[in-house]
Amino acid sequence: MKRLTTLFVFILMTVFAAVYGQVKVTGEVVDDADEAIKLSNASIMLLRAKDSILVQHTRADPSGKFSLLRPDTIPYLLIITYPKYGDYYKTIVEESDASLGTVRLSNVSQLLEEVIVTGKIPVVIKGDTTEYDASSFAVEKNAKVEDLLKVLPGISVDASGKITAQGKTVEKVLVDGEEFFGNDPTLVTRNVRSDMVDKVQLYEKKSEEADRTGVDDGQRTQTINLKLKEDAKKGMFGKTEAGAGGDTDRGFYTGTLAFNKFNGSQKIGLFGLTSNDGTVSLNWEDSDRFGFSDLSSEVSDDGSVSFSWRGDDMDYWNGRGRPRALSTGVSFADAWKDSKHKLNTSYKFGIIENEEESSRIMQENLLDAVLNSNEESYSKAQNQKHRFNGRYDLKIDSLTTLTVSVGATVGNVESRRSQQTNTFDGDGNQINDNIASQHMQSDNLSVDYSAYLTRKLRKEGRSLSLRVNGNRNETSGEGWLNSTANFFVLDSISEIDQRKTMQSVGNNIRTSIAYTEPLWKRLSSSLQYEFSRGVSTSINNSFNQVALTGEYNELDREFSNDFDFNTTRHAANLSFNYRSELLDANLTNNVRNDELYQVNNYEGMDLSRSFLTYNPTLFVRYKISKAKNLSFRFNRNNSLPSLMQIQPLRQNADQLNIVVGNENLRPSQSNSYNVSFDTYNMLKNQYAYVSLNWSQRFNNIQQNILIEDGRRTLSYANLDRVANTMSVWGSIGRDLIKKQKVRGNIFFDATYNNYFNYINGDLSENDNIDFSLSLNFSRNVKKGFDFSIGFTPGYSLLRNSLQPDLNSNGFVYRGNANLEYHMPWKIRIYSNLNYLYQAPTRVFTEKLERFLWQPGVSKKFLKDESLTLNFFINDALNQNIGFTRQQNASTLVQDRYNTIARYYMLKVSWDFTSMNGGKE
């Protein structure tokens, strides 16, 4: 820890010492015809004279005066602009302070039509849109859009490709107003060359709902639109990459080939990947960048369905084990007849194999005792999946739009797992142990579908919309379980040797119809009716071995079950929307009637219940100014109990933990409150935001625990105590040294979580508190020394009322540094460092420390610098150990697991393209 802190302090001292003297340029902007008219907010820009690169930008104050800094003594061009006035140009060459005195601008009505003044304006603000002239900002040769965005005022890009503009996260990057491939901004920013771009436009895009219905719901998405040059609107680009290396035990490899071709609206994408270095879907930088976004659905416990475009477990690796991956896919998108028809489809196939070794230590706090246990486990799994997604948009006429989506996934999972668990009392006496092994194989099918029809009616703001969403999920499989548990207190042994079969089917459909009506200019209303139906079947059978035949066909009724679980919902929404220049407000009143019907087919028992609930939502946003917002949100929600909570599917895979359901469970309620404030100053490239959150959970469904002879029986119940979660987080960021492009950010985060359950009949109150403060400094100009450095100290408190002296409170420290030096001959030397420290606690007496260092060197080749050779050492100090600490009610848990540690690799990559940047 001392080594890393010393290194960070040295780097900071070196950077902040490199500050040069700067010279002021001052003046006053007035109307040429009447000097009493001060042109406040006139735009003043300082450009390098040799290449018109913007270096400084400010606006005149209310008295028309301005002041900005000239970084050095080279010639500069000063441009002053004001709406409906002619532009002012002046070359600045003085080596001392430059006072321009009074600058008079002439109204365009007074200018001669024959006089034409030409020149590039780097930044133009048109209403709510900020437009940048791409050629006015310097980037290195063969740079991508991401590199261009990093040098634009008010925009920043982090190492993962996340874009922040005017203090808000950019969620969409469009090309000529349309999505490029998929919905990931990095698709565009890391593939399209910056010299293909004419203009960069930044604005807040209305929601799809608002565009389609004509009713402004106040929802906005921070969006960047790239306007390409005319000769850069068709072509192809791609990437091929191959790497090989190894450690002392085995070799490492990675290989990627990706290709995209587009011609106007038609886009085709292909990719293939294989690796064993943790890259499971393209690589972490290129996730979804070649147009393979995925339509997924989620079915809640009450049977309702929600849909989103996202990936799944085939698209990422959680850092546990050592995965091997093979993945390939193809995508196609097109639009025709003036975009009246739009089609977007993709297919992907992938295989992931992983081996994981892990160990766990746990402490269970009781009122008058403590139980300690340890577990060792090994698992090997293979996941194979085919995935198809399609979306078709039809603009029937100028008022009617239809969208149809479908997604299908077919997969197979095979896993083997073995584990050994031992439980001890507080004096170290062993209570029980369990040795178990499982082998499972399952086939999975999922189909999702949706249709969304909107119709704008003749009166502005009046519309009708219809939605249909549904999905079907099927799972079938077979497996084997062997388990031997010793209960030493009872002097008994329990042995299990069984074949398992499982089959589950779920069908869900949701339909809704909504009507919107403008009440007057700034107030509109919406009335919606929703019907949803979920039908689920789950059959889990266990078979013992028949001694005479050796076959596993004797049904074990105790650990076999056959359940049907059906839900029906009728819901009505009445909402009101108010929008003005200063205030946005929404009130939604939701009334639901949910009917649950459950059948236990083996026992011949059924259960039906219904719940009527009210779920209101209130949102208010006050626009203090265009750059400052204050908002408040309240939400009340009722959550129904799930099938598992009402009547758990009884299993015996873990003989030391038995789950029991409760058919008398009631819905739980939650109230959530949020207050947030954000502000942004474009001229200073400074932002700040803060968010306060509080949630209350009533009748919370929680697990109570009964422990007898070391065996835990977990049962669900509605608790009469109110659980609370409170959090505050925020950030401030600004330029620290403009000339050196050094930027600083401060982040703070604090969370308090309080909840309850019962342990052996005693009330257990659990408190989790986490807070941290982060300081970050960065410079990214692709010349000389670039860096990104972060320091994040924090403290974590895990406390339980039954044993308040046995907690897991401890100091946590995180640090990171990404350093790179750009040398001549297109050589880059870099070093990536990540440090994590968790202090010892009363429960876990060992400190956890991990210092990851990845040094490397790369060199670019070819005239366009598209070929790169890169050598690096992953985890050079061989300290990458997997570990986590957490609290689950009264149980404190620490996990250790294997992961990818030190290896070296030589990688070669080639970015190829036929798309030209256009001539200046």
UniProtKB/TrEMBL annotation:
<dbReference type="Pfam" id="PF14905">
    <property type="entry name" value="OMP_b-brl_3"/>
</dbReference>
<feature type="domain" description="Outer membrane protein beta-barrel">
    <location>
        <begin position="455"/>
        <end position="910"/>
    </location>
</feature>
<keyword id="KW-0998">Cell outer membrane</keyword>
<feature type="compositionally biased region" description="Polar residues">
    <location>
        <begin position="418"/>
        <end position="433"/>
    </location>
</feature>
<dbReference type="InterPro" id="IPR036942">
    <property type="entry name" value="Beta-barrel_TonB_sf"/>
</dbReference>
<dbReference type="GO" id="GO:0009279">
    <property type="term" value="C:cell outer membrane"/>
</dbReference>
<dbReference type="InterPro" id="IPR041700">
    <property type="entry name" value="OMP_b-brl_3"/>
</dbReference>
<keyword id="KW-0472">Membrane</keyword>
<protein>
    <submittedName>
        <fullName>TonB-dependent receptor</fullName>
    </submittedName>
</protein>
<keyword id="KW-0675">Receptor</keyword>
<feature type="region of interest" description="Disordered">
    <location>
        <begin position="414"/>
        <end position="433"/>
    </location>
</feature>
